[in-house]
Every structure is written in structure tokens, then in C-alpha cells.
């Protein structure tokens, strides 16, 4: 069922559209020199993840940590990749995808990289060109894999999170957090700036709705007005994002707070409205376009979508048993068209949901497909519905790691020794 202008409607009725995401203003393209050095390379590996946070956290962004210890050097000029490298032996494509790559991009800095979709067909990824000792943010064309732009992140620092796409002070931004600061590039103009970061042991969260650090004792720091600003957090709540100059926090019982920087308290608590007879649960996702929250009753769950500014309901999904809705079980498609919560796909325009597989665990997601594991093999779940596998599917241990997708391609990473390569795989 769907809520439109306060009325419940069945699926298939005209839904309330999601508000458009704020467009980033075009800037004159130029690359600023980095303020301070920041580059990757762990012991015997250019980029080795050493903290938890595997998997994809929707909206709030997972945190990862890897240190970089290569000597500084000048950045190598961009040049087309000479050849398409084959997938390594024993690391094949999932069922339904070609083993012969459409393109490949070597020297990926992280064996489990975050791939960010920019505007048009652009992708952003962290890379460490051989012999330079310099971690770089690279923009490539998803259709060809050719680099078109790069910027140094630095040398000798620790990467805390990123790259991620997020809204910072109203600008669509590519963000990379290091122990020295938050590096930001406007997604179109690619203007570079760094917001200094005081030393902290707390994770730096970067999501679609901004950047923040939970500092404890009822407060957090959020990027507002070009700086880290202290904001109060609601009682028993955790931050979920930044919106319109305020930090938004939520508890596990459907209560939200919007707090201004420097305020004495978190402000008025707002209780979400939902289906009668159901108990409000935790937030599943928070972006500038939508808030998703779980509602529970008798071991069943349904999801309610809200306007993130007015907190008015848009639609209510059907109820399903054994459905787990939390930030940690939610993955959003880059465009925001659909999401996966636990083992079900969810249309974000109507609330219609469908089971993918009972033991599905999401690995990666694009606008057209999602990839997940059933414990034995890697499965493909198209946005349109169903799940694709094969009785002859290779074991997950013999499959290259799917990390993202773009257009009609699956993006996979395979590593040999200290070298990681990104591959684009076509449908068969």
C-alpha cells in the first residue's frame, strides 16, 4: 500500500515522487595542490584493509582503515591502458557474466575498493600508480575504463574512509577521509578543498547525507559551513546524517532529532507516524531524498518511507516475516531507485518488495543489478526481479570479488600478490 496526500493507495497507484537531489553547481575544472601529504601502502601491500566494516552500509557509509607507507614521488601522467588484462587463474566471473573482461584497470590501491559513480558515465576509485608512492583519486569512463583525471591524495597518512559520494554544504562531493583531514572534490568542477581533522579515535562516517563523527557523551561533530561543528545528539540516539544545516540523529524506536551546531540540546524529539498496531523500530537508511524506517509486529517487519524534511510518510511496504531492517542490512542503488534490505529488494517509488533468496547476503549493487552470496556461489539479482545463478556456477572462493556495477557491466577486483586490478565484466 502507498500513502499519497495522507491517503493509503494500493501498489500500482500513482506514487508520490521522491524530491530531486540537489544539483551540484558547475565549477571551473582545476586541480588544487593537496594540503599535506596523504597516500597508501600497508606493510608488503599497497593498500591492505585492517579494520572491520566489510559490506556496504547504506546512507551512513561503512568505515575502513588502511595505512600508506610508500615514499613520496611525482604523480605519473595519465595515459590509456595498453591492454586488457585477463582475470587471474582461479578468480573467474560469476554465473551469467563473461570471463573475458571488457576492460581492466591495474594498480588499484585497495583489494576491496569503494567505487563511486559520478555524473554521466564517470567512476571514481583510489589508485596507486607503480613506482610513484602516491595515492591518487582517479576518474575513469565506465564504458572504456580509460582514466580522464586524477588528483593526489597524499603520502604517509592513514585513509579512514572513502572515496564516497555525499552532499556537503549543498554540494555534490567526492570525499576521502584521512587522519589529517577530509578531502573534498566537487563532483563536476573537481575543485579541491581539505577540512582539517583534529586527532580522534572515532570513525569518520561519510554517507549520502554528509560527514560526521560520533564523539560520545550526547554529541557529535558534523561538517557544516566548511568546518567540523559540534552538535547535540538525541537521547539514546546515533547520528544518521546531515540535512539543511542540522545533524539528524535517531534512536531504535522511531524518534528523530534535528540539532543545530552549538545548540545546548538536541531540540524537540519527533516521533515517526506509521501503521496502526505496529511498533516503530530503527532507521534503515537516511539520504537527502528519503528516510526508511522499520516497523515491527509479531516477528514481522514492514518498511515505511518518509520525506526526510517533513517526516511525512510516502508509502508503507507489505509485511514479511523474518525481515531484518537496520542501517547495517541496507544497500541503496546509486540513483536511489531501489534498495536491498536484508534479503529483499525494495522499490523506493512504491514500496513494492520481493524476496531475492532466503540466505542472500549483499556484496555490491548498481542501478541495474545487485550481487550477493548464498554461502556457496555469487548470485545476480536484476532490479526488475528474480535471481540469476546456475547449477554450474563457480564457487564463491573461485570468483573475483564483485565490488560495484555501472551501465550493464559488473565491476570486479582480483589480486595477485601485492597487485590488485579492476575488471569490467559483460553479461553473457
What does this structure look like?
- The protein has 428 residues and is mainly beta.
- The chain has a domain at 210-271.
- The chain is built from no helices and 35 strands.
- It has strands at 2-4, 7-9, 66-67, 103-105, 116-117, 122-127, 135-141, 147-154, 158-168, 171-178, 181-186, 192-196, 204-207, 210-216, 219-224, 227-232, 238-243, 246-250, 255-259, 270-271, 279-286, 291-297, 300-306, 313-316, 320-321, 330-332, 338-341, 344-347, 353-355, 361-365, 369-373, 378-382, 401-406, 409-416, 419-425.
- Strands 3-9-10-11-12 form a five-stranded antiparallel β-sheet, with no helix packed on it. Strands 21, 22, 23, 24 and 25 form a five-stranded antiparallel β-sheet that branches.
- The protein is globular, with a radius of gyration of 21 Å.
- The protein starts with a strand and ends with a strand.
- Mean pLDDT is 82; it is low at 1-77.
Task: Kindly list the characteristics that best describe this protein.
disordered N terminus; about 425 residues; mainly beta; five-stranded antiparallel sheet; 35 strands; globular
